[in-house]
Amino acid sequence: MEGASDCRLEAANAETPAAEQPPAGAGEAGEARNAEPQGEPLLSGGAGTAQTDVPPGEGLGHHEAMENGEQGVCEPDSPFSASPEHASPVTITSYSTLLELRNSEREKETSQNAVLSENVTSSTATGSIIEDNKTLMWSMATFCETIQSEKLHLDLGHFPRKAVQQDYCMPDVIPVRVQTDSDTFQDVAVKIERPTFRKPFLGGFKNRITGVEFHNAGSQTIPKKRPEKGTTLFCRETQTVFQKNKRQQTANPTSTQMTKVGLYVSNVTDKLITPGKYLTAEEYHKRRLEAVIVLQKYFRRWHARNLVQKLKAEKRLRLAWEAQEELRKKKEKEDKVRREHERRLNPKTKEDFELLYHALESWRQEEIERINGTLTGAERKAALCGLLEQEAHLIASIGRHKLNADEENQQKAVLHFLSKCAQPKRWKAYDGKTTEMDTPYTLRARELLEIYRSVSMNDIPQDERIDVLLTLRCTVKEHACELTKEIVELIDREVDLMSRKVKECNLEGLRKRICTLFLQYIKKPEFNPEVAKILKVPPDPLKLYKNVNFCRSCENYLPSTEFPVPANSRTIGRCHLCCKLDNEARRRESFLKYRLILENLRKSEAGYQDDTEIVFLVQLQDLQYMIENIWGCQSALSACSDLCDLVMVRWDKQQEWSPWNTILLTKDEADAHLKLCNLQEAYEAAFIHRIKQKHIRAKKYFAQIPAMTSFLPRSDKQANAS
């Protein structure tokens, strides 16, 4: 360029989003701009930049690299960039001439600029002259802004007088030439990212001395949207309504008109009011008091009526509950008598036969007392002989019932034994659910159980019986031994006899023999491995020498589990079977009621979950001694002697159960006792003293037992040692 050029830029600010966003939090930074004297409004808007991977200042052709924080609009080979080939110095004379030409041209185009400023939606930038040593990027124009420029030159022969370019809009994609080597260039297509929102004007301040305006710069980062929670949120300040009520008495002006000279007012609607008796303060308060008393009378009557109705309703409910409880107890007693009668008629368990022998002994004692009280001499002896014959007849009848019951119980015991072998493995998971798993051994035991059930069935068709026998034959034939050979021979014999039409009554012995031999086959661990864990007699003979004791009564060596060991015992006595025979022949006592009391006691103590131990050390004989000798077989409160209705509970529920911390009560009394919080306030001192004496007696008895010594209090241990 052979002279100085004067360029005036007018930029219409448009909504220009930022392409490269500075980091969030860059707001409130001061940004200085020169203010024009015309006082035009300050511009606010985002700057659009081109995103490339090329660092600024490299490979941009004839353009200069922008300094950090500056923005500008430039394009390769633009006529507005300063070319070093045509640049020339500007003299003072040529510069003044240039100013005069520019002023004359500005006056002519004032009207055109006014029309242009109306079409621009945002504020218009003021014009400025670009110096020779600066390029167009110093105009601070941003992307997508409309730029109008003028270029004046003194040499009108070579250059036109005025060159105008306006309405330039940055395209979406621009080509950029990048220098990749010392003499190699590459054209790169750069995509222009445009802002999606308009950058707001955040205000600023102006220096009055220098006239420089400082604008508050905001972050160009697009604000993040809050995640939707699925619920509509409201602000309390805008949604809550605060109301305030205030009473106000408005004025109501009135006027009266009286008859006077020249005015007549009718008195037809007037009312004559005569003053009443004057009421003093004492009379007023007296009348108020009488009214209050009347109100209190009616209220008290209403309250008393409600109270009486409530008491009547409670009494009615109480009587109904008592009647219901009496009916329940009566029904329970009748059911109990009926069950005992049924158990005596059809005894099946050991407890049933204990009740039967106990009833026989009670009857015998009553008859002996009657004979001794009414008869003497030879008549007495004859009556006693007749009583002995009746007793023997009854004992024989009981024996026949026992044989039948033993046969049924033996079959049930065998099936229970085999079912226990066939049960799958069970365990509880962390979530409380029970998991079951079958092993090859349990499946084998289940198969043998089904075969045994089929073989032991009676009254089945002949074809089905033959199928069962063939299945049994195939099962036992897998193992070759003397037992399996005998079972196979018996099966072949039964099949042969059935083919000869032999009666089934003649085959009962053969079938029982097959069942017995097959049961022996099942109980062998070689054929049924799962049974080894349940057999009482271990397969290994060496294990028999451990925990084996000798019974001096029946002279048998039995495991320790077959011997009753009372808490105060120091030696091994007779086995369970010998004790049972001795009880049936001599004392004929029934321990069922004591056993029920002990079971209920252990069940209730397990519910406390405080790791109590003493209740599980006490045996049936120890509990019987406590009930009979210490508590007298009756309740401590009501003296009820029905052992079926008596239970043992803790005396002080905060301490674990022990023979010196217990009380014998009925079931209803025990429930009420456990609800008490303070025993000293609930019971009298004499009653508490009597209970303490019983505890001392129990302490003396159980102090002789070595297993109980560790549970005694320290003071009692020292007393026993001394």
Automatic annotation (TrEMBL):
Residues of the IQ motif and ubiquitin-like domain: 407-545
GO CC terms, sorted: acrosomal vesicle; motile cilium
Gene Ontology terms describing biological process: cilium assembly; flagellated sperm motility
InterPro entries reported for this sequence: IQUB (IPR037695), IQUB_helical (IPR057887)
Record region (Disordered): 1-89
PROSITE patterns to which the protein is assigned, alphabetical: IQ
Residue stretches of biased makeup (Low complexity): 10-26
Protein name, per record: IQ motif and ubiquitin domain containing
Originating species: Anser cygnoides (Swan goose)
